[in-house]
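Board notes (copied after class):
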Amino acid sequence: LFVKQELQNATCMVCGTLCIALGVVLFLAPNNIATGGTPGLAILLNHVFPGFSLGTLMLATNCPLLLIGMKYLGKGFGVRTTISIFLISIFVDLFREVLHLQPVSHDFLLVTLFGGLFIGVGVGLTLRGHSSSGGSTIIARILAGRFNIKPGHTILAIDTLIIISSAIVFNGIEPSLWSL
C-alpha cells in the first residue's frame, strides 16, 4: 500500500513538474510574462542576469526556502518537494538550453491563458502528489503553522510583489498586467 501510494505521488510530481516547466518555457518566459512564486521570480532574475540559466535561477531562489521549509514541513513532504524543485529546474533547462524549444506563440492573450493553464495544472498535480513546487507555498505553509495566517493570503501577497516587480524589470505596466 505504501509503495503504491508513493508511486502515485511520484507520477503526479513528475507530470506536475513537466507541466510547470512547459508553461514557463513554451509560454511565459519567452514573452516576458512573470508567473507567481519562484518561477516568476526566476523569470525576472533571468531578464536582469541573462548569464544564468532560468532553471539555475529557479533552483537558487528555492534552495534557501527549502532549507527553512525542511525544518517545519516534515521529512516526507520535504523530500518530495526537494525532488519537485530539482525536476522543475532540470526540465526548464532541458527544454530551453538543450532541446531549444521555441515559444508556441507571441500573442499575449494566448500565452497568458495557456501558460497559466499549464502552471495551474502542474501545481495542482504536484500538490496532489503530496509535494510542492517550492517557493511561496513553503513560506505560506510555515506562516500558516506558526502564525495562523491563511496560506492563500501569503501566496497572494508574494505573487503581488512579483507582479509589481515585473513592471519595473520589463519597463512597463503592460507586461505586469498580462502577468496578473
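Comment from the instructor: The mean pLDDT is 90. The chain has eight helices and no strands.
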